[in-house]
Amino acid sequence: MAQEVRGVIAPGKDEAVRVETIVVPDPGPGEAVVRVQACGVCHTDLHYKQGGINDDFPFLLGHEAAGVVEAVGDGVTDVEPGDFVILNWRAVCGKCRACLRGRPWYCFDTHNAKQRMTLTDGTELSPALGIGAFAEKTLVAAGQCTKVDPAVAPQVAGLLGCGVMAGIGAAINTGGVGRGDSVAVIGCGGVGDAAIAGSHLAGAATIIAVDIDDRKLAKARTMGATHTVNSRETDPVEAIRELTGGFGADVVIEAVGRPETYQQAFYARDLAGTVVLVGVPTPEMKLELPLLDVFGRGGSLKSSWYGDCLPSRDFPMLIDLHLQGRLDLGAFVTETIQLDEVEKAFERMHQGDVLRSVVVL
Ligand code: APR
Ligand code: ZN
Ligand code: ZN
């Protein structure tokens, strides 16, 4: 029997979000219904509401979530009712050319639930990133559920489902940060701070945080930054070079998603160093660089999709490190809120007041 629950929808372009009754079908083959316990508010949810992702309104927002599996459909063997899970938005297929080459974190054919959740009048909802977890329950593909140790608080665990994993993975998976490395992180929001925490965890010796907001830089220090640079006041490229013996950092992580900060990252890395772009640009942005510099500076220029994470490998491992006290995921939760406070949380996010607001259900 389909169930009726409360969920936060974005009804139309730039319209305020609101709580509505939504209909969640029983899980079909390969699907699962999850009772959501917590879901973080991410920029991508705001982009959906603004019409910046696509026009498939109404959206069911929310995608950084943790909860308990309530029911599974036919053929589901990896999770069962009662499992505590983090939802991921890249359920790997196991069959595409990336998966077959043994690189499932690049999977080119990730999947979502086949059935649609609806409003009570039958209007089909588009779940944000195929999840839609600002809701008491949600329907996902079973592969989107990753089982982790239930000892962790849901509001902390859920954050690994998106921004925090993107940042940690940008450092550890994409950037390959290791012991003794110098790292610079440009943009210290939730994603950048997670890149700092990931670099710290990986043993980086120098971690330089760059932002235009001193509040963000103060927080970055608590996440593991050894130095901070306010790039409104100081040229960040020169500052990073000075802090790294005149050379530049081994790995520079761009966590803003703008051409000017990408250019800073490009020139702030050492010769043969690595640039990781984890900030997400918008379609009109263009980059111009002397091709000779691209050649002459060598190294690698990489993008990080979802931190190049493999949920089944990375989520349980990072939760275990958190539970052992080696990774403070709790530091990313600025506030917990109710389902009807998402609109307000968007405003606070926009003003830069929070790392993450988390809806607790
Ligand atoms: N130089 C340095 N820092 C900047 C600049 C700039 N020109 N412009 C903005 N910032 C800082 C902001 O002050 C803020 O601290 O970048 C940070 C961005 O953080 P958030 O807005 O909280 O965004 P976050 O959730 O961290 O995501 C960052 O990654 O996944 C993507 O879509 C996401 O593009 C976004 C990026
Ligand atoms: Zn695949
Ligand atoms: Zn997100």
UniProtKB/TrEMBL annotation:
InterPro entries, per the entry: ADH-like_C (IPR013149), ADH-like_N (IPR013154), ADH_Zn_CS (IPR002328), ER (IPR020843), GroES-like_sf (IPR011032), MycoS_dep_FDH (IPR017816), NAD(P)-bd_dom_sf (IPR036291)
Matches recorded under PANTHER family: NAD-DEPENDENT ALCOHOL DEHYDROGENASE, S-NITROSOMYCOTHIOL REDUCTASE MSCR
| Family statement drawn from the similarity comment of this UniProt entry | Belongs to the zinc-containing alcohol dehydrogenase family.
The cross-references to Gene3D superfamilies, in alphabetical order and at most eight, read: Medium-chain alcohol dehydrogenases, catalytic domain, NAD(P)-binding Rossmann-like Domain
Cite the Pfam families for this sequence.
ADH_N, ADH_zinc_N
The record's annotation in NCBIfam families points to:
mycoS_dep_FDH
CDD domains found in the cross-reference section:
Zn_ADH_class_III
Q: Does the keyword Cytoplasm apply?
A: no
Q: What keywords are assigned to this protein? A: Metal-binding, Oxidoreductase, Zinc
Q: Which residues form the Enoyl reductase (ER) domain?
A: 12-361
Identification of the protein by name: Oxidoreductase
Q: Which cofactor does it need?
A: Zn(2+)
The organism encoding this protein is: Streptomyces djakartensis
Is Secreted a UniProt keyword of this protein? no
